[in-house]
From TrEMBL:
Keywords: Kinase, Transferase. It comes from the Bacteria. Pfam families: ROK. The keyword Cell wall biogenesis/degradation does not apply. The lineage of its organism: Bacteria, Bacillati, Actinomycetota, Actinomycetes, Kitasatosporales. Belongs to the ROK (NagC/XylR) family. InterPro entries: ATPase_NBD, ROK, WH-like_DNA-bd_sf, WH_DNA-bd_sf. The keyword Kinase applies. This is NBD/HSP70 family sugar kinase. One of its GO terms (molecular function) is kinase activity. PANTHER family: GLUCOKINASE, ROK (REPRESSOR, ORF, KINASE) FAMILY. It comes from Streptomyces iranensis.
Amino acid sequence: MREGDGYSADQTLLPAVPAGLRRVLDLVLAGEATNRAEIARRSGLARSTVGQQVDQLLGRDILEELESGESVRGRPPRLLTLSPHAGTIAVADVDTLDTRIAIADLGGRLIAQDTVTVRIDTGPESVLEVVCDRLHALLERSGRDPDRVRQVVMGLPAPVDRDRGCPLRPNGMPGWDGYPVAERLRARFRAPAQVDNDANLMALGEAVQARTETPVLCLKIGNGIGAGLITAEGRIYRGADGAAGDVGHIRSLGGGTALCTCGNVGCVRAIASHRAVLRTLDIPESTEEDPLHGVHELAERVANNDPPAVRALRQAATEIGELAAMLVYMYNPRTLILGGPLSDLRDDLLSGVRAVVYQRALPLATRNLTITTTRLGAASAVHGAVALATGDVFSERGIARLLVD
């Protein structure tokens, strides 16, 4: 459903999705049935009903039917699968210095990805223009129709108002507070758009793509410190106003008078974030030659066992461990995952966090707890964004959009 230069989100115009069609599509997407006969057997629907619903999905280019090439006798069965023409998902994981972008098919398979060097403090209009242009370039380069983008998802390092699709009072992001990010994405891609917190998407990516055991608590340690929680039911816990997980502003007992970007002193973010460690070591965060100079310089110093760098990293690990122990008490996760630039220095960081958590938390909360770093690395949030998008595309309203578009 597309109107003019923007996407119309008026759900009152969407038709009801037949239960039989939804059942057919669910079986094919889950891989539980690959042909009409299997669908009829597993669903209990009449073959004529299955045929009608399959034909409708074929006619809308949502499914395609292929010759299997294998037959015991008679004509080989025709296999049903998601059509490559069904559409594309576009996602972006915005960070302070660079942004990871990707496009995927509706089955969640990444088609192409890239990294865009753009500073978040240049403002939302500048960032969105560059990121959207590069996403369109990815679509063109991959031969994907820009008019068949079914969902756009953007992750931001800030609390997010999901209903309005905008960041809320972000630190270090001038011009972003209340900016209608989702609205701008809808207008640019003429498709539904969602905006979420980057730590939430990182946690979702680890839970869905890496099949990490839930509940999952993910700590992203970048220029700030944020947490994403995936419940045992596989849902993102966002809180009442989207502020859940903004844990970097919890006061540290050892924080002293360190000034945080929020205006308070002693926040964990101010003494244990990646930016705080760089500041302690007088390492520039970026240079003209290398926008990620701080990441590379710190990694090199730690690899060379530079005493000040190792000491600073271990001190940060202790502070993060104290924070993690408190969160383990509160949420009792099955898996605690460390992500962000500091997690790449996994030996010192991981061992330090583990030591504090197991010392501070009681055995009841840690007896089945796994503490590790991201399995997907820097791509975690991208995979989480894709998972969030596919969940909406194949929701009741998402299928209805596919049927009328």
